Amino acid sequence: MTHKSKWLLFSPVGLVAIGAGACLVQWAGQLKEKGAPAKDWVLAGTAALTVFNAGISLFGQGVVEKVLHEVREKPQQP
Question: Any idea where the domains of the chain sit in the sequence?
Answer without folding.
Answer: 10-72
